């Protein structure tokens, strides 16, 4: 142990020190999930910037009317079917853009759990469904609603709710808490008196809500879905349905597993890994994860292992001394 001048000779002075400033433990997947801000989430960062910037551009150039859809007269009789591809370009007002940006920021943990390649694959492969299904369903529902449903607000609402479905299914909650109502002491005393007189319980039942740390995300999502009631409910419901169907591998031509289409690795700045004849590619895919976990385990058990080694060495030394004494 190094001799530090002025160190008081207590039982803390002989504490084992094993400091190596040159070695830094690799971050584990759990540490990456708990990283603050937008670290390790380039796709989410681009989506967040686009959500805010597109709303600002639509307001500055006063072209909001080009993004919204009215089945009549845009589709019939003007035949402006290009709006079915352009309605998700941006939100028309700042309130919806704010709620959408908050949702995108909350769902950054999905990219940390998946990786940027899978995140980009999900957005690109579900984009045709989230873009074309809401206008198509609105066209079908309009005559069934006696022409009351005719308006589709602009903005990438379907994409965000498709990601929200993955957030709901992939990310577990950290803690849970309950919010309930309780009666006052006077009401409790009156209830006890009534119980003694009548022999029956007349206490008012309390209302208890079981919430988690993810509840705030769902509250923001409900605010976005109800912002332009009932027009915004359709793209929100379609986005959630597309996300659930993608996860269940029900979308035609798409799959959430490794057998489905994936964005090329060079698009997101990664290196393509090809499977060898002995299946080495599958092992290499999880090689980084294994190294991170081994590094974290080694770091966490370093102090404990050194202490056990010292105690084991001391025990072996004492046993050797006893055996020598027995021989002599």
Describe the structure.
It comes from Penicillium brevicompactum. By secondary structure, the chain is mainly α. 55% of the residues lie in helices and 4% in strands. It is built from 14 helices and 4 strands. A two-stranded antiparallel ribbon has the order 1-2. A two-stranded antiparallel sheet has the order 3-4. The two termini are 35 Å apart.
User: Which class do the helix and strand fractions yield?
Assistant: mainly alpha
Low-confidence stretches: 1-33
Largest sheet: 2 strands, antiparallel
Per DSSP E runs of 2 or more residues, the count of β-strands stands at: 4
Give the termini separation.
35 Å
The H-and-E topology, N to C, reads as HHEHHHHHEHEHEHHHHH
Overview in brief:
55% of the residues lie in helices and 4% in strands.
Features:
328 residues; mainly alpha; two-stranded antiparallel sheet; 4 strands; 55% helix; globular; disordered N terminus; DSC E3 ubiquitin ligase complex subunit 2; transmembrane helix
Strand-helix topology:
Elements: H1 29-33, H2 42-60, E1 69-70, H3 71-75, H4 83-86, H5 94-106, H6 108-114, H7 116-144, E2 151-152, H8 157-170, E3 176-180, H9 185-198, E4 208-212, H10 215-225, H11 233-247, H12 280-285, H13 287-300, H14 302-327
Antiparallel strand pairs: 1-2, 3-4
Helix pairs in contact: 2-5, 5-10, 6-7, 7-8, 7-11, 8-11
Membrane topology: Multi-pass membrane protein
InterPro entries: Rhomboid-like_sf
Organism: Penicillium brevicompactum
């Amino acid at each position: 142990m190094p001799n530090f001048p002025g160190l008081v000779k207590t039982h803390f002075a002989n504490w084992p020190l094993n400091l190596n400033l040159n070695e830094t433990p690799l971050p584990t997947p759990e540490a990456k999930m708990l990283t603050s801000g937008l670290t390790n989430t380039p796709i989410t960062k681009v989506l967040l910037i686009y959500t805010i910037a597109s709303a600002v551009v639509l307001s500055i150039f006063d072209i909001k009317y080009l993004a919204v859809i009215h089945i009549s007269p845009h589709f019939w009789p003007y035949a402006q079917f290009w709006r079915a591809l352009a309605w998700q370009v941006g939100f028309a007002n700042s309130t919806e853009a704010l709620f959408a940006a908050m949702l995108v920021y909350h769902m950054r943990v999905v990219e940390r759990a998946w990786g940027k390649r899978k995140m980009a694959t999900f957005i690109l492969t579900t984009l045709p469904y989230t873009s074309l299904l809401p206008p198509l369903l609105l066209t079908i529902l309009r005559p069934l609603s006696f022409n009351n449903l005719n308006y589709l607000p602009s903005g990438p609402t379907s994409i965000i709710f498709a990601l929200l479905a993955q957030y709901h299914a992939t990310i577990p909650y950290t803690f849970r808490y309950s919010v309930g109502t309780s009666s006052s002491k006077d009401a409790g005393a009156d209830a006890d008196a009534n119980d003694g007189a009548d022999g029956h319980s007349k206490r008012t039942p309390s209302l208890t809500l079981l919430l988690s740390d993810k509840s705030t995300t769902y509250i923001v999502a409900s605010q976005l879905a109800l912002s332009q009631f009932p027009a915004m409910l359709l793209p929100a419901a379609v986005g959630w349905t597309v996300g659930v169907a993608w996860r269940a591998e029900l979308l035609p031509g798409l799959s959430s597993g490794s057998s489905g289409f994936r964005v090329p690795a060079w698009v997101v700045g990664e290196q393509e890994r090809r499977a060898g004849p002995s299946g080495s590619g599958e092992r290499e895919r999880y090689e980084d994860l294994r190294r991170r976990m081994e590094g974290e385990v080694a770091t966490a058990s370093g102090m404990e292992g050194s202490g056990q080694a010292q105690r084991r060495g001391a025990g072996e030394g004492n046993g050797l001394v006893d055996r020598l004494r027995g021989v002599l």
